Amino acid sequence: MRSTEMLHAEDSLARAGALLRHTAYPFVPIVHEGALLGAVSEASFAAALAEGESLVNPCLRALMVPPTISPRASGAEALRRLVDDPHSALLVVDDEQRVYGVISASDLTDDNHRAPTPHQIGGMATPFGVYLTTGSVSGGVPQWALISVGAMLFTIFVLTDQLSVSLADSLGDPVLSGYAITWLPVILFLATIRLLPLSGTHAAEHMVVHAIERGEELRPEIVKRMPRVHPRCGTNLAVGASIFLGLFNWEWVADQEIRLLVALLATFILYRPLGSMVQLLITTRPPNDRQIESGIRAGKELLARYRTAHGPQPTPFTRILHSGMLHVMAGSLMTYAVFHLMGMFLGWPPI
User: Fold this and answer.
1) In CATH, what number does 7-109 get?
2) pLDDT (tens digit, 9 = 90+) per residue, 91-115?
3) Are residues 208 and 224 in contact, defined by beta-carbon separation less than 8 angstroms?
4) DSSP conformational letter for 112
């Protein structure tokens, strides 16, 4: 039930029209000394004007009998009345004809959507589940899991790069070997990402973020309907950087200023649509139930902390720290150090 503005018997039709324009309901109640006399609806207002009533005349000239319901009635009874009544709303009136408010079908749902939610959320998929953050609070897997992302990505990079070198050396043809060295690491790296469970967790992260930012309840049947592609995904930035560096470093024209201009323009135009395509085809895939549940747990934990958090707005450093990028870099550096030390002891070529 929600409160509603009310007309008094002495109010004019002009005031009735003004309230009708601004109310969310199909009628405005008219009261006298606290008791309900009736209501003005769009239909009764139009009928009064059609009969020649002046806007300065009392609003009682547009009186209609509104549908009412007792404040003691159940939600099921209110729903039955709303289905049968053409006005799509009911006045809540007690036995003494005092108006409590107005109720519509949307008022019979839960009130969770009115709780404060962050406008924008960042996140990351990890081998251990979903991580989400607002920049000041976070939810989901602990931050050490973010370090594992850097370690895993660097390991995949090293292994696919070494495999590409071996395959290129086996080709024998210098031209084919050159193409293989250039493109095989990228192809193998992306294929590995697509095949790993991480891509499903990545999709679950996006879908939960979409649900929260749209004000939806975090239920599996709702989250599963959300898109896998998100406009703020880091994939878009990686694609944009690849477009820019590829066009700028490719000496298709000698003038660097022309290459710079074309690279900037192409990046601005293409990074979002190509990034969305890469998300859809490579860096995400339909998540399974376990991955969806991981995302929902992270989302609920994030919202619980956000709604109880108090304090100043996060500083840029705090946002960077919560983003997880420093943890990913730390994981990559630690893994590089491990590979470097192993190479020193085992005689491997430097990475």
Assistant:
1) 3.10.580.10
2) 899 988 999 989 888 888 765 555 6
3) no
4) G
